[in-house]
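F.,

This is the one I mentioned.
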């Protein structure tokens, strides 16, 4: 009986369709000062299949937006984007000065050493969505990420 249940469980795992297989490395959020309402989140994403990052949620923020820093003439500007492409097999770096996440309407101060839950939502070309739950460490205000690989 136990072997039959184990075999059935293993067979069901093998038959589950793999969606994005997105891996996340080096995630972090910058600590905030008291009463701050905004924070940035950064990480590296890599997907086995081409997908788009389309949404991020966190219980510590009223909303989370996908943003991009880009030069417009002689001025660096930050703007919200609807999605971020994650090409198959390529690392996409969410970092200061490029794509990154912005947490708005913070419900609490983010203190060094805490862990912040984030849920990333990616969608593939067929429209299938996958959620990726993360626990992201809060780094000091002066923290600088190491250069991307």
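My design for it:
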């Amino acid at each position: 009986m136990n072997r039959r249940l184990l075999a059935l469980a293993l067979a069901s795992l093998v038959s589950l369709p793999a969606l994005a297989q997105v891996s996340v490395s080096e995630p972090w959020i910058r600590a905030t000062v008291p009463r701050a309402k905004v924070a940035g989140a950064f990480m590296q994403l890599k997907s086995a299949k081409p997908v788009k990052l389309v949404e991020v949620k966190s219980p510590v923020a009223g909303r989370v937006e996908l943003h991009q820093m880009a030069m417009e003439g002689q001025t660096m500007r930050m703007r919200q984007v609807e999605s971020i492409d994650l090409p198959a097999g390529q690392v996409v770096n969410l970092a200061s000065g490029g794509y990154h996440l912005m947490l708005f309407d913070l419900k609490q101060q983010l203190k060094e050493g805490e862990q912040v839950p984030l849920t990333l939502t990616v969608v593939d070309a067929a429209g299938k969505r996958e959620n990726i739950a993360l626990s992201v460490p809060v780094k000091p205000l002066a923290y600088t990420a190491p250069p991307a690989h």
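Confidence is low (pLDDT under 50) at residues 4-18.

Talk soon.
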